[in-house]
Amino acid sequence: MTAEEQLVARLAEKGWTLALAESCTGGMVAQRITSVPGASAIFLGGVVAYANEIKRDVLGVSSATLAAHGAVSAETALAMSQGARRITHATVAASVTGIAGPSGTTPDKPVGLVFIGVASAQCATTERFFFSGDRAAIRAQACNAMLVLLLKSLPGII
Hints:
Maf protein; 6 helices; alpha/beta; about 20% strand; 5 strands; about 45% helix; five-stranded mixed sheet
């Protein structure tokens, strides 16, 4: 069983719902979840927040957070997941933001740096990842990591 199939099954068992906020993955996680039969029982929707303006104006990431920490940060990932949960009223929400490359880097933020956030009423967490490879490989690894982190987070919030 794939990670997305496990996630849909576990959330459906509890009657819980999921929302996503994706940046560097551009909706790839939502695509994987919606490829699972029965996903409509748990998946409310997602926001592809590629631009900072969308992170700010739709998801509610504060301008101060973006200015102080940048779009690719634990703070922004957390705010994105909390914003997705707030606007959809989902039981749990997850977010991903990172640098898939080949450009957009800084000395402190190299290609492959990714932050994933998960938020529910009981929990709010982020994890930092560093993936290698080309743009497609980094995006695929970020998708996998997001699904795995959601699964890991569920025992503590279900």
